[in-house]
């Protein structure tokens, strides 16, 4: 019968959920492990290509070129009458920030199942693994950031003091994505199919999160749409991806001011906290089960 | 199976009065582990028409094990295939949820299993660094330890090859060397030493002695009864998920061996 005896002092029950504070401390002690693992993955990811990690630069440039061609030129979103005046800047911030979050959350889905060997052999707080994938994506974002700042400069945004807010925005953007990565890590461990579903989820979100267009600009000229958007534009704050894309634009672009601005900052902080706290809680729920297959 | 020697279960399993509680590293309180698996066969047409759902089959692998492990003990576990040894170790390491009862430990036990590997596609050296960091060693200390670990594992020539090029014995040696680089309070070894050669067996035996000396507790499952009798201070005999004997290594190993030959 359980509970018949009281355990001697100093012994901890192994089953069940670890205490959050102890867990976070142990995970923090292993930050070097997360960095080391991330660096290894980062180094090897393009090793089999001729250009190696130059792809980190080529990828975002090609991506922007294609989106600009399709949406800016062919579909005419770049026309400053209907879109933001600096469409290339608008587009590049949107695409880079969105795909950064997408990559982090998607990589989180493989964090546990790609490291089963480590999990089965050694004891460490499992949340270190999604943390490592996050670090890897942060490293990868460096080159995107370079291209983005360059484009900002070329397209006439110039340097301005608001840019100093970008690091703060980046922390919030990353915190939210890490929370998401913790969730997908556990979900994929339980049901592998999640990994196949994620690309479609992100494709859909890509089109509804204002990455390619400003929803307010889209409504312009259509009184009914403007009226609706005026009344319901707070609902946009319920889409975290829209929130973070707007947040990044606000700090990096001087020619574009996202609507509902104070709300965007508040929503950014709120979404980051919700994702982190819920993500950790959810991930920890299966801490003892990871790797049992 | 009680006819093979009268059960000498130490009542200490649940009776802590005789034990200095500071000396306890692991405490198992009436632990049960149940696996639920679906049978791998198609339901017959009749079952299907009757609307019988596929029901998981329950395998009660560990049925009420209680035991107290003290500091400095190395406990061997013997028993036939399917007697619940590996399951018990996994529950002990906190890797399997228990159905009933509770496992208490002074710190998270480290489990070394056969066939476990860290990262197959990267070199032995990087695996050592990763492993040490995962165990919580600070980075500056890791550099100092790497050479010791390579020495101990005896893998100088192969250390820069990816792990997938290693034999199972080499992998086991590397993993043992890493896992014992940080002195764990509780080390749980499941057959992992069986694949090592004679030289490594002696080295690992020495290291286990050191661990025990530093107030650690070692659990060891092996079918090599010689190893158990040699390196354990106490042996537990499991049969169908229950402890049927617990005590002096030589005595229990002898009785277990006798029962095995009787049964044939």
What oligomeric state is this?
A: heterodimer
Based on Cα principal axes, name the global outline of chain A: globular
What topology, given as strand order, has the largest sheet of chain B? 5-6-7-3-8-9
- Any low-confidence stretches of chain B, pLDDT <50, length ≥5? 1-14
On the 0 to 100 scale, the average pLDDT of chain B is 81
Fraction of residues in helix of chain A:
55-70%
Largest interface: A-B, 35 and 49 residues
N-to-C SSE string of chain B, H for helix and E for strand: EHEEHEEHHHEHEHEEH
Structural class of chain B: alpha/beta
Distance between the termini of chain B: 14 Å
Low-confidence stretches of chain A: none
Q: Radius of gyration of chain B from the CA trace?
A: 20 Å
Query: Which overall shape of chain B is indicated by the principal axes computed on the Cα atoms?
Result: globular
Helix content percent band of chain B: 25-40%
The tally of beta strands of chain B, per DSSP, is: 9
| Overall average residue pLDDT of chain A | 86
Structural class of chain A: mainly alpha
Strand content of chain A: under 5%
Tell me the distance between the termini of chain A.
29 Å
Based on DSSP secondary structure assignment, what is the total number of beta strands of chain A? 1
Strand content of chain B: 15-25%
What does this structure look like?
The complex is a heterodimer of chains A (293) and B (264). Chain A has helices at 20-29, 31-44, 55-74, 87-111, 116-121, 128-154, 166-190, 194-208, 215-219, 223-232, 240-252, 261-284; one strand spanning 12-13. Chain A is an all-alpha fold. In chain A, helix 3 crosses helix 6 (128-154), helix 4 (87-111) packs across helix 11 and helix 6 packs across helix 7. Chain A is globular, with a radius of gyration of 22 Å. The model of chain A has no long low-confidence stretch (mean pLDDT 86). Chain B is α/β, with parallel strands linked by helices and 264 residues long. The longest helix of chain B is centred in the last third of the chain and has 16 residues, at 198-213. The model of chain B is unreliable at 1-14 (pLDDT under 50).
């Amino acid at each position: 019968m359980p509970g018949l005896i009281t355990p001697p002092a100093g012994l901890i029950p192994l089953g069940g959920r670890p205490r959050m504070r102890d867990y976070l401390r142990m995970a923090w002690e292993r930050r070097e492990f997360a960095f080391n693992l991330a660096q290894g993955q980062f180094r090897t990811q393009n090793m089999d290509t001729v250009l190696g990690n130059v792809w980190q630069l080529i990828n975002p440039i090609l991506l922007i070129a294609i989106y600009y061609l399709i949406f800016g030129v062919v579909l005419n979103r770049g026309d400053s009458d209907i879109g933001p005046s600096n469409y290339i800047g608008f587009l590049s911030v949107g695409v880079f920030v969105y795909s950064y979050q997408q990559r982090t959350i998607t990589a989180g889905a493989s964090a546990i199942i790609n490291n089963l060997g480590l999990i089965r052999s050694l004891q460490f707080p499992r949340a270190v693994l999604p943390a490592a994938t996050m670090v890897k994506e942060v490293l990868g974002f460096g080159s995107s950031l370079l291209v983005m700042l360059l484009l900002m400069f070329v397209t006439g945004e110039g340097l301005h003091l608001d840019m100093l807010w970008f690091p703060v925005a980046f922390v919030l953007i990353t915190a939210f994505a890490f929370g998401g990565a913790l969730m997908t890590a556990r979900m994929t461990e339980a049901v592998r199919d999640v990994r196949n579903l994620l690309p479609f989820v992100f494709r859909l979100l890509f089109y509804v999160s204002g990455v390619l267009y400003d929803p307010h600009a889209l409504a312009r000229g259509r009184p009914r749409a403007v009226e609706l958007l005026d009344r319901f534009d707070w609902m946009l704050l319920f889409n975290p991806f829209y929130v973070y894309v707007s947040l990044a634009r606000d700090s990096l672009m001087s020619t574009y001011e996202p609507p509902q601005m104070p709300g965007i900052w508040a929503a950014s902080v709120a979404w980051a906290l919700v994702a982190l706290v819920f993500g950790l809680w959810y991930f920890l729920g299966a801490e003892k089960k990871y790797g049992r297959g | 199976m009680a006819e093979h020697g009268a059960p000498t279960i130490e009542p200490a399993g649940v009776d802590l009065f005789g034990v200095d509680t500071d000396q306890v590293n692991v405490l198992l309180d009436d632990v049960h582990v149940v696996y639920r698996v679906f049978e791998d066969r198609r339901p017959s047409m009749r079952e299907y028409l009757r609307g019988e759902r596929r029901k998981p089959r329950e395998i009660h692998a560990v049925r009420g094990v209680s035991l107290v492990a003290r500091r400095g003990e190395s406990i061997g576990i013997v028993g036939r295939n399917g007697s619940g040894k590996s399951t018990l170790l996994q529950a002990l390491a906190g890797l399997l949820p228990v159905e009933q009862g509770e496992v208490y430990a002074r710190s998270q036990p480290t489990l070394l299993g056969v066939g476990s590997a860290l990262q197959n596609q990267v070199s032995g050296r990087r695996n050592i660094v990763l492993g040490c960091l995962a165990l919580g060693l600070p980075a500056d200390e890791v550099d100092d330890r790497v050479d010791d670990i390579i020495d101990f594992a005896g893998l100088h020539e192969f250390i820069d090859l990816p792990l997938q090029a290693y034999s199972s014995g080499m992998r086991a040696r590397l993993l043992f060397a890493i896992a014992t680089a940080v002195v764990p309070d509780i080390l749980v070894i499941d057959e992992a030493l069986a694949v090592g050669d004679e030289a490594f067996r002696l080295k690992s035996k020495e290291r286990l002695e050191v661990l025990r000396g530093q107030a650690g507790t070692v659990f060891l499952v092996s079918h090599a009864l010689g190893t158990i009798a040699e390196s354990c201070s106490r042996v537990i005999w499991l049969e169908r998920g229950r402890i049927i004997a617990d005590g002096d290594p030589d005595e229990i190993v002898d009785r277990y061996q006798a029962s095995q030959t009787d049964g044939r």
